[in-house]
Design brief:
This protein is mostly helical. The protein folds into 2 domains: 34 residues, no CATH class; 39 residues. The protein is built from 3 helices and no strands. α1 crosses α2.
């Protein structure tokens, strides 16, 4: 949605709801929303690569945690009060 369309929709919405209208506020909201949310097309190869990389990283974290917990269990460290 273009900034101009957003301002028109925002002003119409504020009038409908009985709020004070402010183009400055609309511009601020539009700019913050535009800069605050990053999006990528799902059809881009780089998107798939980033998602797969994140999945692999999470899988490695899960494996590492399993190893750490098994070492704690073998060493009897689960009897320490912080784990109870």
């Amino acid at each position: 949605m273009s900034q101009h369309k957003f301002i028109e929709a925002y002003v119409a919405w504020t009038k409908k709801k009985g709020h004070h209208t402010s183009e400055t506020k609309a511009i601020s909201l539009y700019t913050n929303a535009l800069n605050g949310v990053s999006t990528m097309s799902s059809s881009m190869p780089s998107t798939k690569m980033l998602v797969l990389e994140a999945v692999h990283a999470l899988q490695n974290v899960e494996k590492t945690l399993a190893v750490i917990l098994s070492i704690f269990k073998l060493a009897g460290l689960f009897s320490i009060p912080i784990f109870e």
